[in-house]
Backbone:
């Protein structure tokens, strides 16, 4: 193995084991805080029609971003492998033999 390959594997390991989980945790916490603030009743009562549509978009963005962070965090904990058949493709945990 060359030094470039070994340094690439080292960087990949650091990113997958430290950086990405930290980003996911901060993303989940930040989006939860966004949802707490954006779903307050007092905030919703004082909006006109245009503000409400932007508000709904921000809530949807926070929910989708949080779901992405949760699912990506799960794939970091349980590594998945791709199994392709002639009809479809599956993601299964690497610990299962298929």
Residues:
């Amino acid at each position: 193995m060359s030094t470039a390959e070994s340094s690439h594997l080292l960087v990949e390991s650091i990113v997958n084991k430290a950086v990405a989980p930290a980003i996911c945790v901060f993303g989940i916490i930040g989006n939860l805080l966004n949802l707490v603030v954006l779903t307050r009743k007092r905030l919703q009562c004082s909006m006109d029609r245009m503000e409400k549509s932007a508000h709904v978009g921000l809530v949807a963005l926070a929910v989708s971003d949080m779901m992405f962070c949760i699912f990506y965090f799960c794939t970091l904990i349980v590594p998945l492998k791709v199994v392709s058949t002639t009809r479809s493709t599956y993601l299964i945990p690497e610990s299962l033999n298929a």
